[in-house]
Every structure is written in structure tokens, then in C-alpha cells.
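It would be a great kindness if you could assist me with a short task in structural biology. The matter concerns a single protein, recorded as an amino acid sequence and a row of C-alpha cells. The record follows directly beneath this note:
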Amino acid sequence: MRNLMAGAPGSMVTGATGADRVRRARPDPVSVRHRGHFAASRPRGPRRSMSRVRMQRDEARVTNEDTEDARRAGVPVPSGRLARLARLGSTGAGVAGRVAAGGLAELGRGRRPQLRDLVLTPGNVRRVTDQLAEMRGAAMKLGQLLSMDAGEVLPPELAAIMARLRAEADAMPPAQLRRVLDREWPRGWLSTFARFDVHPVAAASIGQVHRAWLKDGRALAIKVQYPGVAASIDSDVANVGALLRISGLLPRGFDLAPYLAEARAQLHAETDYMAEGAHLARFADVLAGDDRFAVPEYVASFSTGSVLSMSFMEGAPIESVAEASQAVRDRVARDLIDLTLRELFVFGWMQTDPNFANYRWDAEAGRIVLLDFGATRRIDPATADLHRRLLIAALDGDRDRLRALAGEVGVIGPDTPAGHADRILDMAEIACAELRRTGPLDIATLDLPRRLQAEAIALAEDGLVPPPLPMEALHVQRKIAGMYLLAARLRARVPVREMVEGYLGRAEPD
């Protein structure tokens, strides 16, 4: 839910009184006129005065001068399976055509072309990225999984594609948004709103978020699922997997299958907005009374399987805390790391998406706003126990125990060569040595990602193909890594060892 506060106040106007004339079978045309609001079409009647027409034209002209108007107009989401397949097919055909042309050109120069060099041209990289971003859904989810979980060993060109897909999607245009809401909400829904901003304040892999005001004064954040995403999950995942395989972008020996399966499972879970509403309510309950955090209130009356409504909460990007005092930066990072430990060892539920956009900072109230619970997972007690034993072995510096536990996690498989296993343990020791330090860690100076990435690339070049990790453990590790990266971004100093030790011997620290 990136840039939740990015909506322009000037783009919202009062909802029309003719909203009760909206029809499900044949909805009235959307009257947006670039003004950023929904208004049902008026019935035929006396013509409006020329002064009013001129006023509306002036209003439209001013809005059209906005430098972001073209972007905010949106890109329609292909909703039918054939349309989505055709989009992927045209991408593959375009890449193949460029590869063939590039190969002929190289032969004409007397050079033997390399397939990887032909595939990974800037034009092909941009083409694949743009098409996958417009597909949303499976394409973006797979990109997010790969970039977070395998980014250390991906070619730079593919890493760039995945980073773009992890960041944000294009928005669907107002007319398509209106059709989705007409389908999901009862006839006359617009009459319950005082204002509804058709320009999303966030657009991601599965849906986009809009800000709206009810006539009773409540401000809502309304997440609307892209049409066709839920029905096309299985075919989309298979098609995207095929596109990535034939593109030559994946490292040799990389097993894409478990990522495809997990992308499919995650998408099926995350497109169930009723389930996400339940997760939202659950976290609001377990964090009630904890003034460090704020969770939006779930609004069931405006929620369906494809539309999720909640109270709108003010806040700035969590990265803005980097400009605050050292004490505030330390506190925010400490609180988020503590929340992650509570999720793993106390709650038994974890919001596993560490995207920075899922956290906001309410500086006035001095609290962290938690958003987007679609990736919430039940944590098996066995997984929590395994991570507790891993942390104990790490703090004790017990290499033999770490080796055995790495086998349980799946980092070291039965067929992993002994030399590779030792180097994997050496990588683990890089992180464990920092974890054993007492007192506040200046996380931004640790340089762990660079050192670990260098070791991972060296192992991959030496022929290591890591076995797929159990997905639940992978999600936990992704969340932990995300909190590390956020603490580093904030230049925070956190007493990590003392915080971790508090959760290793009892259910909850004092």
C-alpha cells in the first residue's frame, strides 16, 4: 500500500445524488472528466448553463495540467484469460523477434552471438518488465518472491526487472474501477459516500487502494482487487514461469518450480479479501493497548471477497524516520524487530511481507501504522521451535549444532558437497558473529548484505545449486531480513542480542 498519503486533496468532490440510478446489469457511464471523483450520470433534462460548462472545462483544464495526470489515468488490467495469455504471448514473441534480429546482426559482423547477450538487451528487459507490470497478479507476485528470496544469485538484468515488479504496479483507470465496484457493492452505493477519490493512493500486485469519505464523516481506505486476477492465477503462474524459462534470464540449474507453486498458493490466499479482513481484525485485537502500533479498523459493511475496506490512518512513509533523531530511529527499528519476534514466538501468526510500504510513521502520535495483512501466515509451532534452536546455537557459537539445524531447515541438503556445506556455515557465521555482540548494533555499518551476497555469488559460480527451502521457513527468514534492511535504512542502533535472548527461554519477555 505504497504512498498511502499521496492522494491530492484537490482531486475529490462531493458524490452525486443520482447514484441510486446505478444498475448492476448496465451501470451508468462514469462521469469522471479528469476531476478525480465518481459521479453517476444525470437523467436527461434541461441543458446546463454555459457558465457552468465553462467552469467545468476550466476545472478539467487545470487538472489536466498536473504533471502526473497521464500516469494516474491508469492502464486497464487484462481480465479475460485469453487476453492475459495473448499479452504474455506477444511479450514472448517480441523478445524472440528481437533475439533473432540481434543474432543476424552479430553474424553479419562476423561474430558468434551468445543467446544470453541477445536476450538481455535493454530493450528486451524493458519490454518484459513493462508487460509483467501491466499483468499484475501472478507476474508481480512471482517477481516479488524471486527478488526477495533469490536476489543474491540473479543476473543484474533480471534483478532489475524483479525490483520494478516489487515496487509497484500501474493503476487501472476509473471506468474499470467503477465496473468492479458496481459488481461488488449494492446498487446506489455511491450515495453513501460524501467523496470518493478515483485516483489510487497505492497500486500493487493484486489490487489498488482508494481514499473515500462516508457521509457520517469517516475516512476509509478501500482496496479494490484487479479484475480477472483471482480467476487467472493458475494459468498466469504457468505462463509467467514459461516466459521466464525461455527467456534465459534464470541462472543455470535454478529450480523455479517451488517458487511457482508458492506464488500460486500465495495468490489464492491473498485474493481472498475476507480472509485478509480477518487477519486485520486479529492483529488489531492482539495489539490493542500497545501504543507503539496502530492497526486500521476493519469495515465489514463495505468489504467483500474482492473489496477490502478499513479506516484510513494518517502517516508518512516509514523511510521518513531516517530524518528523525537517533532516539526515534532506534525506537522505531527496535519496536518493529520486537514485533517480528512476538509474531514468531508469541502470536503464532506473522505478516510475512516486509515491504517498507506496509509500514507508516505517525509522528504526531509517535506510533507505527501497520498496513496490508494479505501475506499473514499461521506459524507452525515446530517452525517457531526450529528458529528458537537456531538462535540459541548462533548465540552459543556452536558450529556442529548449526550444521545439524541447517540440515533441518534445508539450507544444507543430503547431496550438498562437504566443501559447499562448510562455506554455507561460514556465511552463517558472518551473521552469527554480529548477533553475539552485546549492546546496540549500528546496523547500517555492518555491511552484511554485501558480504553475504559476495559469498553467495562465489558459491553459485562454484556450481552450488541450493535446495529449495521449506516455504514457511523462507517466509520467516524473508521477514527477518526485511526488518534488518529497514533498520539499516533508518541508520538505527538496536540491542539485537538482548532482544532475542528475551524470547528464547520463555513464551514472552518481561
